[in-house]
Amino acid sequence: MGKTVRMTVAQATINFLGAQHSESDGIEQKLFAGCFGIFGHGNVAGIGQALLQAELEQPELLPYVLGRNEQAMVHSAVAYARMKERRQTWVVSTSVGPGATNMLTGAALATINRLPVLLLPADTFADRSASPLLQELEQPYAGDLTVNDAFRPLSAYFDRVWRPEQLAPALMSAMRVLTDPAATGAVTVCFPQDVQVQAYDWPVELFERRVWHIARPLPETRVLAQAAEVIRNAKRPLVVAGGGVHYSGATDALAAFCEATGIPVGQTQAGKGTLVFDHPQCLGAIGSTGTTASNAIAAEADLVIGIGTRYSDFTTASRTAFQGPDVTFVNINVAGLDAVKQAGLSVVADAREALTALTGLLEGHRVEQAYVERYTALDAEWESTVTSVFAQPETDEGLLSQNAVIGAVNELSDPRDVVVCAAGSMPGDLHKLWRTRDPKGYHVEYGYSCMGYEVAGGLGVAMACPDRDVFVMVGDGSYLMMATELATVVQEHVKLITVLVQNHGYASIGALSESLGSQRFGTRYRARGAQSHRLDGDFLPVDLAANAASFGLEVIKARTMAELADAIKVAKAGSEPVVIYVETDPFIDAPSSESWWDVPVSATSTLESTQQARTTYDEHKARQRLFLTPPRVP
Ligand SMILES: Cc1ncc(C[n+]2csc(CCOP(=O)(O)OP(=O)(O)O)c2C)c(N)n1
Ligand SMILES: [Mg+2]
């Protein structure tokens, strides 16, 4: 028996986590920047005691940050991890029951976006001595089940430490998955309340500094040669760049590939910034919320080269974006799951490695000049559309358009500043309009598009990048869903600029509802009418500016463009968090993507609006394609 050290399961866990590092390209950093937490009886005396002991005795080990909502803490952690290209994240500690299950939405968001976060929900007693406990779920059909089993389908790895002996293998597996570029996501390790406080003699090696290498899997030589041949034979190839390009640190490799070959790029939400907006090969957003340039080129492409993309419905315009009669796909992705999509030639590899090798193999190859001229002209056309909507004046009622608000923030922010958003009409509008001038300048969570991510995510971004200003763009609906982390922003002295866009309800779902024949039903924040008994009465007198001010931060109300511009300048010049409150007209849309999104419409209805929408739906649906044919390798 080697040397051991006696401590509790919780103390061992915190000591272990504080000693973990990630390594990529020779750069080592701590895997966990710290631990967000909210204490309850499930964790206060176990993990909580261990965190206290660590803060007093080893303050750098795993700094503790108190959040306000468990879901929000996961959002902050995930946003942080995204800004750190998945090389560093946070631990999130919660109590049992509601504290734990509040994290479920965050877990789903992390796993869907393939972003690492370590969740440590507390769990019911392993020895069942006092069951049923406060907040314990009892099911007549199973004795070993707890609410935490709900994390299983949402986690990239799930474990529960019933006995101290299980701790080391559970933690090792958790680290393996967090640092695996293909498998990463929410990693959940549950800690029964009584187990957290048990003492055990741990081998000292468990707590030694440990470095987890983040792999860059190389492409298979033969497959890559085939990919190069397919690209050489394409007349109108198009790259679809996703978040994987960022996580691989492949933005320079992508630029080199595109400059050498002349192949243009459409970007997914997570892939925006992979080329800066004015790069000659950058056509901006692609798909349902894409630019007309990307979408026109997508419609004609004979080859799509997907790099680090999941091909979500927004990216493929629900499989209507690519209309070339013989279009095929080559996919570069670390995850086999994504590489095989659309019957593509699968290059299962790290994006940077594969792109660099491909550029070499394609030396001397360039697409035809006529193609370059065509996409360059389409791109210029879109840019002038953006310029014109950014300059939209106030309406006759004195309201700004959302386009103009986005334009002002874009133009008055510094190139390295970061814009953050997640749900509502703004993600789509930002995807189309935002001129990204730095690879990390655009942070829209659109894998889960979770209302409530905005402020919490903005906090995580600002903590990850203290050298950049962070602009959170949040609609009134998302703000009402979860503005709570403004309290944490104040607590942590984080400079966060929140632009709160008030349009009294859901501009996004309202417009969607109308387009689907559902007449904007139930999408505005209005009181129930005394006569009609419907939600068509007065607009609610809710004062969100006063609400924001109640968190103890400065709120600037802007009505006109001049006031908005002033507010942004004041916020940027200061070092404190600011909320800018602005009312917009929800009926002014962003310029059209000339694209579609598959949202099914009732097949039968007594409403004429629904019947008409169904006819339109059927027309679009007929254009949807399956893509079952792999590329022909010459
Ligand atoms: C948690 C969650 N619930 C519901 C939705 C569906 N949804 C998407 S956008 C939206 C409305 C957002 O309203 P707001 O933040 O005011 O933005 P706006 O649409 O007005 O731009 C809703 C309800 C969602 N994305 N996330
Ligand atoms: Mg709104």
Hetero groups in this structure are: thiamine diphosphate, magnesium ion
Query: Residue ranges: pLDDT <50 for 5 or more in a row?
Result: none
Q: Mean of residue pLDDT?
A: 98
The fraction of residues in strands falls at 15-25%
Shape: globular
Structural class: alpha/beta
Describe the protein.
With 634 residues, the protein is an alpha/beta fold. The protein is built from 24 helices and 23 strands. It has a six-stranded parallel beta sheet, sandwiched between helices. It has a six-stranded parallel beta sheet with strand order 14-13-12-15-16-17, sandwiched between helices. Helix 17 (426-433) links the parallel strand 18 (418-421) and strand 19. The longest helix is centred in the middle third of the chain and has 22 residues, at 369-390. The model has no long low-confidence stretch (mean pLDDT 98). Residues 423-426, 449-452, 475-478, 481, 503, 506-509 line the site of thiamine diphosphate (TPP).
Describe the protein's topology.
Layout: E1 4-8, H1 9-18, E2 20-24, E3 27-30, E4 32-37, H2 47-57, E5 64-66, H3 70-83, E6 89-94, H4 98-101, H5 104-112, E7 117-123, E8 157-160, H6 167-178, E9 186-192, H7 193-196, E10 199-203, E11 210-213, H8 221-232, E12 237-241, H9 243-247, H10 251-261, E13 265-267, E14 282-285, H11 292-300, E15 303-307, H12 313-316, E16 328-333, H13 336-339, E17 345-348, H14 351-361, H15 369-390, H16 402-412, E18 418-421, H17 426-433, E19 442-444, H18 453-464, E20 470-475, H19 476-481, H20 486-491, E21 497-502, H21 507-515, H22 544-549, E22 554-558, H23 561-573, E23 578-583, H24 608-621
Parallel strand pairs: 2-11, 4-5, 4-6, 6-7, 7-9, 8-9, 12-13, 12-15, 13-14, 15-16, 16-17, 18-19, 18-20, 20-21, 21-23, 22-23
Antiparallel strand pairs: 1-10, 2-3
Helix pairs in contact: 1-2, 3-5, 3-18, 8-14, 10-14, 11-15, 15-16, 16-17, 16-23
Bound molecules: thiamine diphosphate (TPP) and magnesium ion.
InterPro entries: DHS-like_NAD/FAD-binding_dom, Myo_inos_IolD, THDP-binding, Thiamin_PyroP_enz_cen_dom, Thiamin_PyroP_enz_TPP-bd_dom, TPP-bd_CS, TPP_enz, TPP_enzyme_TPP-bd
Family: Belongs to the TPP enzyme family.
Domain Thiamine pyrophosphate enzyme N-terminal TPP-binding: 52-135
